[in-house]
Design goal:
Layout lengths: L1 H18 L20 E5 L2 E7 L2 H8 L8 E10 L6 E2 L1 H4 L6 H9 L7 H11 L10 E9 L4 E10 L2 E10 L9 H5 L10 E3 L2 H9 L4 E3 L6 E4 L2 E4 L5 H7 L3 E2 L5 H13 L12 E2 L2 E2 L2 E6 L6 E13 L2 E16 L7 E5 L3 H13 L4 E8 L10 E2 L5 E2 L4 E7 L10 E2 L9 H7 L2
Parallel strand pairs: 8-16, 11-22, 19-23
Antiparallel strand pairs: 1-2, 2-3, 3-5, 4-6, 6-7, 9-10, 11-17, 12-15, 13-14, 15-16, 16-17, 17-18, 19-22, 20-21
Length: 431
């Protein structure tokens, strides 16, 4: 009980200290657009699909009730069918636990005395996407899904007799104070054309990855921290949808609302899947993008930080990252917040777990290892910026993604580095 009290106290201390640093931040370009203007469009042959995820305020304006308070989020879908056959939108593809219009109306029927269940049902039904989409027509409407914040993976599956068209859309949701700048990350304003290095030769690309810095640093680059043990090749169309599909969520800015959520999570023991992550540095800047997969409570999570590099591989973005597993919270004098999350010292486990996780994403096409920070054995571990020990084989994992679905049996293993008896080495020997 005393140990649990200390971890709760540590989390509250983190939250209260962060409160002094909380800021509102600027309104992003994406948040200035209405849902149709920011819709993302994809095509396959003569079929065009557009999708947009509504914010809490937008869904309230359209439906007339606070859907977000019930954990419900409308996704707008438009299908322009230029094909010669009718298609059927599969709502469970967007969310296996989607909400029918009638069920959603029932959830609010007793709340609004002036609205009868029949009126609500008719209103919600009129807004819903209606199947089928006949040949030569355009159909649009909403599918009611479970609430996400920051980003949402929108999977649109259209079926017809003997045909199937699949679209994976990574949609940004307004109203979430993310710790990344949407314009900087998604419109790629970080580098000029002259700064971008394009690689098409595998050997040269491998050498460039091995020459990356060993570790993240503090702001003034005076100390090394956690190892840079991750490289992701891909972006908005493949890598990020794959991560979101497997349950990875964005992190929230440090502001009064997120601080309150951290305190509530620490007190209640509930999960906070968007909890803020402290800044670490590469390329003279804090992480461009951070994702986490929450576990049972705020003290436990897998988390990764990503920096967009100036490298491109066969035209795809190359992200350099750091991944580790938080297993608790503790007090420390090595953090400006006086408290920190404690990491699992076996950082290779978190790296391997992500590789295995992405095999199930259907978007991973290649994976492997390259030389990185260098080996640090269990009996002589290194230390990160908050003095947590870590040990490693010294490699960094490389994950390459593509927009086209890839079966587990078709994932290729890069013959670069490996460990005797390890996942990469064993599997590559079986090919």
């Amino acid at each position: 009980m005393a140990c649990k009290f200390k971890t709760i106290l540590a989390s509250i201390s983190i939250a209260l200290t962060l409160a002094g640093c909380a800021s509102k931040g600027p309104v992003s370009e994406i948040e200035k657009l209405d849902y149709k203007s920011r819709a993302i469009t994809r095509s396959d042959g003569a079929v065009l699909v557009s999708a947009s995820v509504l914010s809490a305020d937008e869904s309230h304006d359209i439906y007339g009730v606070p859907l977000a308070k019930k954990g419900i989020q409308p996704v707008w879908i438009e299908v322009e069918n230029g094909d010669d056959t009718a298609y059927w939108l599969m709502s469970p593809g967007l969310d296996p636990h989607f909400f029918p219009a009638s069920e959603t109306a029932e959830a609010f029927a007793s709340t609004y005395e002036n609205e009868t269940l029949e009126v609500l049902d008719q209103h919600f039904s009129a807004l819903a996407f209606r199947n089928p989409v006949p040949a030569g027509t355009t159909v649009s409407g909403f599918v009611l899904t479970n609430l996400d914040q920051g980003v949402k993976m929108v999977q649109v599956d259209l079926v017809a007799s003997g045909r199937h068209k699949s679209f994976s859309i990574f949609a940004v949701i307004p109203g979430f104070r993310s710790d990344y700048r949407a314009r900087r990350v998604f419109i790629r304003e970080l580098y000029t054309e002259d700064e971008i290095i394009e690689y098409t030769d595998e050997k040269a690309f491998r050498a460039a990855l091995e020459e990356l810095p060993c570790c993240v640093t503090n702001k003034d680059v005076s100390r090394n921290g956690d190892p840079l043990n991750l490289v992701i090749v891909g972006g908005l169309d493949d890598a990020f949808p794959a991560l979101v599909r497997r349950g990875w969520r964005p992190t929230e800015q440090t502001w009064s609302g997120s601080v309150l959520k951290m305190i509530n999570s620490a007190m209640s023991g509930e999960r906070y899947p968007y909890a803020p992550i402290s800044p670490l540095y590469l390329y003279d800047r804090p992480q461009d993008f951070a994702l986490q997969k929450a576990r049972d409570n705020i003290h436990q999570r897998n988390h990764l930080r990503l920096w967009l590099s100036p490298m491109r591989y066969h035209g795809k973005d190359v992200w350099v990252g750091q991944i580790s597993r938080d297993i608790g919270t503790r007090f420390t004098i090595h953090s400006p917040y006086l408290t920190t999350h404690k990491i699992d010292p076996d950082v290779d486990e978190a790296r391997t777990a992500l590789q295995e996780d992405m095999v199930y994403s259907q978007s991973l096409v290649k994976l492997g290892l390259v030389k990185g920070v260098g080996a640090a054995p269990r009996d002589a571990p290194r230390r990160n910026l908050t003095t947590d020990p870590y040990y490693t084989d010294g490699f960094r994992g490389v994950l390459m993604f593509d927009v086209h679905p890839t079966a587990i049996t078709d994932v290729q293993f890069l013959p670069w580095e490996g460990r005797e008896g390890g996942f990469i080495e064993y599997t590559s020997q079986q090919q």
